[in-house]
Specification:
The protein is an alpha+beta fold. Helix content is 63%, strand content 15%.
Length: 270
């Protein structure tokens, strides 16, 4: 009986520690960790993960890995989970994993590549490049029309040539290779925790909407930017003409100075 009582007491102590220190319990037992809280209007989403796995955003009343999200206590920033009659209190992870996490852990190349994959890097870049091609060709074609095309190539030929040159330029970008280079930059600039926070955001409805609608937003932005750039073209052309005149005047002045330095020409012998 004494042995059973002692074992029961030990079990209660262990359960109490698990409920009051969820960060250490999560590390030791593989229980969920609360990594962040996102407020969307009147609702809250909670970023939960098992250590070593990707986070998921869960709302009150839903379940995560068998744990039901019961309550969020704002005064202590603690999330209450329950499973099989056991209650688990999860404080925000930053509050329990120590100063090392606050200072930031060095990110690996794999961390950065994983985020870029989640951001659909290659697909987004390809769509952006195509939009940039179209916008540039339209702008150059409009410039040619504004100048009347005097002495220049046919507008259709010019447009085809512009597209061909831009295809060569953009094909040289090598998107798979660029993704690796960008991943190196992300790993150098951001910490592991910062990359994880970005990944958490892109897994939310708002983050997914940003990825889905980014190309359409960029296209609409170009529709706003393009006319403003075209409106400035007459001033740009006037500056180019003025610059050409200044350069011609400098060349003439240099020639005149060179002749003056040589002195008068010697008389020819008769």
């Amino acid at each position: 009986m004494k042995t059973s009582a002692r074992l029961g007491s030990v079990a209660l102590v262990i359960l109490g520690l698990a409920c009051t220190n969820a960060g250490h319990a999560a590390t030791a037992t593989g229980a969920p960790v609360l990594r962040g809280v996102l407020v969307t209007g009147t609702e809250k989403l909670f970023s939960l993960s098992i250590p070593g796995t990707q986070s998921s955003w869960v709302e009150l009343g839903k379940t995560f890995e068998g744990w039901k999200v019961v309550e969020y206590r704002e005064a202590s920033n603690t999330l209450v989970l329950s499973r099989d009659g056991v209650e688990l209190l999860l404080p925000l992870a930053q509050g329990v994993i120590g100063a090392e996490a606050l200072a930031g852990t060095a990110a690996s190349l794999e961390d950065a590549e994983s985020l870029l994959t989640q951001m659909r890097f290659e697909d987004m870049m390809a769509k952006t490049i195509e939009q940039q091609k179209d916008a540039t060709v339209k702008m150059m074609s409009q410039m040619l029309k504004d100048t009347g095309g005097k002495g220049g190539p046919d507008s259709a030929d010019m447009e085809a040539f512009q597209r061909k040159t831009m295809d060569v330029m953009f094909d040289a970008m090598d998107l798979p290779g660029m993704k690796k280079d960008v991943a190196k930059i992300y790993a150098e600039v951001f910490t592991k925790e910062e990359l994880r926070a970005q990944a958490d955001f892109y897994s939310t409805p708002g983050g997914k909407a940003l990825l889905d609608k980014q190309p359409a937003m960029q296209q609409k932005m170009m529709a706003v930017i393009g006319p403003r750039m075209m409106a400035a073209m007459p001033k740009v052309q006037a500056l180019a003409v003025e610059f050409g005149k200044e350069q011609a005047a400098k060349r003439d002045a240099a020639k005149a100075a060179s002749k003056a330095a040589e002195g008068p020409a010697a008389p020819s012998a008769k």
